[in-house]
Amino acid sequence: MSDFSPCEPGPTYRREVARRNDSVAQVTLLRHGEPDWAPGGGSAVDDPGLTPYGHEQARRAADALARERIDTIYVSPYLRSHETAVPLAEATGLEPVTIPDLREIGVNVGGLSSQEDVDRYFVEATRRPLAEHWDGWPGAERFTEFHARVTGALADVLGRHDIRPEKEHDFTVWQVPRPGARIVIVAHGGTNAVLCTHLLDIRPVPWEWMRFESQLAAYSVLQARPLGGRGNVWSLVNFNELDHLRPMP
C-alpha cells in the first residue's frame, strides 16, 4: 500500500470549503462531559458535576471549539453542563447564558435504591408499545412536553440573534437578517438531539436521543445556508465530533 502524499486541493474542494465558510449562521451543540453521579463512591446525586475525566473532556472540547470565533455560549441549568462550559468561557472570554428549558428530559428514579433497579426502570420502559413512548419515562416528564420546552428554548436563543422561522407549505425556512452569528449550546444528549431534529425540519419521534446519539463531550455543527431567495435552511455539517477526545500522540 502506498503512503498518502500531501497535494494541493482541487477546485471542487476549494469551492465546497468556500460554500461552508459562507454560511449565514452557525449553531454548535456540545454535550456535557462525563458526570459524577455518585461522588466519592457515595450516594447518587440528582444534579452531578463532572468527574476528573469529564473535566479533561471539557478542556479538550474548549481547545477545539475556541479555534474559531464564537459570539455567545448558551448553557443548560444543570451543573454538568455549566462545568463543561467553564473552559470554553475562559478560552473565549464569554459569560455563558443559562437557558432553563435546555435541561434534559425529566426522569423518575428517586425511589430506586440500586443501579440495577435504575437499569431495570429504563429497560422495561423501552419495551412498552411504541405509542406509549410519547409519555416519556414512567412517572416523569412527557416527551411531548420536553420537545415543546426545548424547541421553545431554541426559539428564545435564536430570537436573541434575530433568527426566526417561517412556514411555507410543509417546510420551514429561517430568516437571518444579521448574518454571521456563531452560537454554542452546551446541553445534553436528549436536548441536543431534539434541537438537531427541529433545526433540520424532521418529524419528531419520542426517542430522539437514539436517532441523533452523541457521546459525552462530543459536538455537532449546523449551519444556516441560503435557499434561493426564500430564506435559509439548516445543514448538518459535522455530527458527533470526537477527534478532540482521541488519545494524544
Question: Could you walk me through the main structural features you see in this protein, from its secondary elements to its overall organization?
Answer:
The protein has 249 residues and is of the alpha/beta class. It folds into two domains: 24-37 and 45-104 and 142-245, Rossmann fold (3-Layer(aba) Sandwich), CATH 3.40.50; 107-140. The chain has helices at residues 11-21, 52-65, 79-92, 115-126, 143-159, 189-199, 208-211, and strands at 25-31, 72-75, 97-98, 164-168, 171-175, 181-187, 219-227, 231-241. Strands 3-2-6-1-7-8 form a six-stranded mixed sheet. It has a two-stranded antiparallel ribbon with strand order 4-5. Strand 2, helix 3 (79-92) and strand 3 (97-98) form a beta-alpha-beta unit. Helix 2 crosses helix 3 and helix 5 (143-159) packs across helix 6. The longest helix is centred in the middle third of the chain and has 17 residues, at 143-159. The two termini are 23 Å apart. The model has no long low-confidence stretch (mean pLDDT 91).
